[in-house]
Design a protein that fits this description.
heterodimer, A: 5-stranded antiparallel β-sheet, B: mainly beta, 7-stranded mixed β-sheet
Chain lengths: 109, 115
């Protein structure tokens, strides 16, 4: 079956760095997405990886290893506004997104 | 302002009633989607539409129907609501469903409670 695993909750300190891991198993693979979702709001797109390696976008970076079925989202210089859930989603061979349950990130001062 | 709108924002519904959730986008996107989001579970696809006039079933289509009469609108109908359909419903759109770099844009969601 198709499956996405990511930690349920993580806590980090303002100004620090945090890495949110995601492992996936899908029927075929057409890329890995990360979305941010603040409580009570809609998910918003953060990043997309289809090739192995690191994609950097400001304070956020996303990494993919296709051979390991693994991705991570790296958040640097954490700010209180980064408190949110981070959703990992893999696109299967039918171009359908398979979503993880999300990682709730709590930022402490 | 470009984007996706959903209505209503929230709704409490008696079991057995019929309900239509509305979704409209003004980005001229070809593909549209309906998801439900439940605590502890990932977003689950209910139905999708690749382009106006076509629809398809997602992971959890039972009890729901959709139509896509034009590019902008993609209503979701619960013919006879049941308590297990209590959830937050998100509508999303993307330029196309086949492009691997296609990004989905989400509406603000509808919080539905079925009693």
């Amino acid at each position: 079956g198709q499956n996405i695993d990511q930690p349920t909750e993580m806590t980090a300190t303002e100004g620090a760095i945090v890495q949110i891991n995601c492992t996936y198993q899908t029927s075929g693979f057409n890329g890995l997405f990360w979305y941010q979702q603040h409580a009570g709001e809609a998910p918003t797109f953060l990043s997309y990886n289809v090739l192995d390696g690191l994609e950097e976008k400001g304070r956020f970076s996303s990494f993919l290893s296709r051979s390991k079925g693994y991705s991570y989202l790296l958040l640097k210089e954490l700010q209180m506004k980064d408190s949110a859930s981070y959703l990992c989603a893999a696109m299967d061979s039918n171009y359908q997104l398979i979503w993880g349950a999300g990682t709730k990130l709590i930022i402490k001062p | 302002i470009a984007g996706i709108t959903q209505a209503p924002t929230s709704q409490i519904l008696a079991a057995g009633r019929r309900m239509t959730l509305r979704c409209t986008q003004d980005m001229r996107h070809n593909a549209m989607y309906w998801y439900r989001q439940d605590l502890g579970l990932g977003l689950r696809l209910i139905h999708y539409s690749n382009t106006a006039g076509t629809t398809g079933k997602g992971e959890v289509p039972d009890g729901y129907s959709v139509s896509r009469a034009n590019t902008d609108d993609f209503p979701l109908t619960l013919a006879s609501a049941v308590p297990s359909q209590t959830s937050v419903y998100f509508c999303a759109s993307s330029d196309s469903r086949s492009a691997t770099t296609d990004t989905q844009y989400f509406g603000p969601g509808t919080r539905l409670t079925v009693l």
